[in-house]
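Technical annex B. To support the medicinal chemistry partners, we prepared a structural model of the target in complex with 2-deoxy-2-amino glucitol-6-phosphate, based solely on the information shown next.
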Amino acid sequence: MCGIIGYVGTRDVPSVLLGGLWRLEYRGYDSSGIAVIGNGELIIRKVPGKLSELEALIKRQPVSGGIGVGHTRWATHGLPQENNTHPLIDCNEEIALVVNGIIENYLSLKDDLESRGHIFRSVTDSEVIVHLIEEDLDKGLVDAVRSTVKKLTGNFAFAVISVNDRSKIVCARHDAPLICCYNSKEAAVASDISGVVSIFNDVIYIPNDSIVVLGKGKCNITNFQGREVRVTPRKVTIDVKDIDKGHFPHFMLKEIYEQPKVLHNIINERIVGGRVTLGSELGISDAEMKKVSRILIQACGTSWHAGLVGKYIIEKFARIHTEVDISSEFRYRDAVLDSDTLVMAVSQSGETADTLAGLREAKVKFLKVLSLVNVIQSSIHRESDGIIEIMAGPEIGVASTKAYTAEIVHLYLLALYLGSLRGFVSKVDLEEHIAALTKLPAQVEQVIRLDDDIREIAEEFSDARDFLFLGRGLNYATALEGALKLKEISYINATGYAAGEMKHGPIALIDHKMPIVCVNPRSSVYDKMFNNIQEAVARKGIPISVVTKGDRRTRGISKHSIPIPECHECVSPILAVIPLQLLAYHIATLKELDVDRPRNLAKSVTVE
Ligand code: AGP
C-alpha cells in the first residue's frame, strides 16, 4: 500500500522525507516522490521505480526548504510512471498532495472538474482531491480540505502543503491509517510510526474521519464537521533496531529467527501463575464469554491460515462451534449471525481493508468483535470491542512469519482460556498444555538450526515450476501457509491442499517433476497422511516431508525429510511451518528475488 510522509521543522527536509520513505517501503510500491517548498515555490522530485532512483534524482537535483511531503505509490489506477507518481499538484502549482487509498467516485468528480477547466496531469483517482482543494483554496487550506473530504467516497489518508502557508501540513483520514507527531520545533505525519521513528517520542494515532493541522508546536485535530477532537499522545514503543535488518540480509530471515524470542515473550506474558491471561483489553467479560455458542473468525492470507488452526483447537478444547471465513467473502455474504456469536478478526497489520470491513459488518449486526492484532492503535484495534495484541513486534517483511506463529499461539491460549472457563479444560489438562507451550521456544530454535540443510533442499528445487503442499488436520493450514510463503516470494506456482482431497483432483498434477511438501509430524492423522504420501510416490512425485524426529516410516518413502522435535499436536503447526518459511526464503534468494518486497504485493492491503 502507498506510504505517506510529511515534515515541517528545523531538520533537513529532503533527508527526513527520504529516510521516512525508506522505512515505509516495506508497504510495497512501484514509484516515489517528494515535494518541498523552498523560496516560496513548490519543488517536486518524483520517479518510477525504487527509492534508490529517487535518492539519485535528489542527489543530481538537490532541493531544500522548511516543509515537505513524500510518497511511495502502490499503483491502483494508472501505470507506475512519472505523471501518476505523487506528490500531485493543482493547476496553479500552489499545493502538493500525497494520498493513500482509493477514491471510488473519482470518475464523476473528474468529469465535473474537467468541465470547470481543471487540467489533469495523471490518470490516478487521487488527483481529484488536489483539484477539489484548489477550488476552495480561497476559504483557506483547512476549510478547503474540510469541504473536499465531504465530497469523497472510498477510503483515503492524505497530507497537503501550500506555498501560501509554509508553516503547516494539513492532513485527513477516512478508513486508511495515518499517524502524526509534533514538538516545539517540528511536526510530522506518516502512514505508520515506522516512517518517523527515532525523531519523536510520542505519537498520535489520528482518529477516523479527522482533519489535522500540523506545525511546529502545533497539532489541531477536528472531525469532518469541524468539532475539536482530543487525542492523547502515546509513547513510541518501537525503535530503529526493531525496524532495522541488523546483521541479517533480509527482514524475512530476521523475523524467522526472531520467533523463539517472540514466542518466549508471549508465553511469559500470557501464562502467569499457571493460568492463561489474555491482556487488559480483552473487552469481553467471562460472563459474556460463557454465553458464546459460536465463533466466527474472519481474516485474510496468512492470518486466515492461523484462523484455520484456531478453529481446530478452539473446537477441541472449548467445545464452541467455530468457523473461519476469508474476510473478502465474509463481508459480502450476509452471514447468519445470532446474538451469541462472537466474531473475531485476525490481522497482523490491523489495516487490511477486507478484514476491517468484516469487523464493521459484524458491528452493524450488533455483535461483539474480538480481534487479534499486531499493530496497536491500528484501525482494527481501535474499532474492536476487545483485542488481544499478538506481541510479535514490528513485522517488516511482506511475507508474514513471526506474526503467523504468534497468532497461532494466541488462538491456542484463547482456546485454553475458554475451555477452562467452560469447564472442558481441567487444571491437569492445562498444566499439560502449559508444559507444551513452555518447551516451544527452544524447540523452534532446534528447527531453525536446520537452516543449512533446508537451504540444500532449496538448491535442488529452486528451478521447479510447480509445488504441491499437503497436510491434514491442524497441518492442513500448514500446507496452505507453506504454499503461500513459496508463491508470494519466489513466484513459483505452489498449491496447498488437504491431503485427503488430493485424489479428488490434484493427484492429476503429480509426475516425476513435482516436488510435494508433505507435512506429517506424529499426530492423530499420521497414518492417513502416510497413505497419501505413498499415493504421491506411486505417481513418481518427489516427497519432501516434515516429520517428527526419529520417524523412519515417512522418512523411508521421502526424497528429503526435515525432522521437528516430538511435540504436542497443538504446537505442531508452529514447529512444522518453520522449515517451510526457510524453504521459501532460500528458494527466493537463490532466484535472487526481492524477498522483503515481492512484486505486486504490499505488507498491508488497505484497499479492496
Ligand atoms: C502473508 O505472507 C501475506 N503478506 C498476506 O497474505 C497477509 O497475511 C494478508 O494480507 C493479511 O494481512 P494482515 O494479517 O495484516 O491482515
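Notes passed to the chemistry partners:
The mean pLDDT is 94.
The domain at 450-595 is CATH 3.40.50.10490 (Rossmann fold).
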